[in-house]
Amino acid sequence: QVQLVESGGGLVQxxxxxxxxxxASGFTFxxxxxxxxxxxxxxxxxxxxxxxxxxxxxxxxxSVKGRFTISRDNAKNTVYLQMNSLKPEDTAVxxxxxxxxxGQGTQVTVSS
Length: 112
Fold this sequence. Notes:
By secondary structure, the protein is an all-beta fold. 0% of the residues lie in helices and 51% in strands. It contains no helices and eleven strands. The radius of gyration is 13 Å and the shape is globular. The model has no long low-confidence stretch (mean pLDDT 98).
């Protein structure tokens, strides 16, 4: 079955960290550029980060640069999003994405 399954979300205090994972299955993961998106409550979904297929190139939304790191393990068919120094405005449902496919999302809530 072709799918992306996110995990690792939760409730964290401001300044805390979380690592999201996205496990891919049913397709050749290593040839795809992978993306993380997020949808804050009441807002549109926005792009957060991408990583190219070999993992040699990344880019980030300006508001997360220096705090978030996207990485991938092609042997494990998994892409990660390490999120540090979290802020309340990072609260959102985070989605993993490749061309034509979305995961179900994982909730991240940053609150004291």
